[in-house]
Here is the input.
Amino acid sequence: MTTLTLAGRDVSVDEGGFFTDPSSWTPEMAEEMARAEGITLTDRHWEVLNLMRRDYEANGTGPNVRALSKKSGIPIKELYQLFPKGPAKTAARLAGIPKPQGCI
Here is the structure.
């Protein structure tokens, strides 16, 4: 595990950069991580991030890209435009939750 400093706070992440304790996440951390990946978070991004967090809280894992598209109503093509390096993985990382099951 690694410790990162995000938005002035130290957080523990795994080797993939996913939070080990989702309760330590803040929206400011998501903004900082997104900037580092070249993403400017819009309302559409926040729809996805908030859905990822809700789904994680309800199911113990975030949705994969197909389920994310279905649950959010955002087409897969648009999800890849929002999160070019992989919608489910990137959105999970920015949402401060572990990597969704089924993501490589």
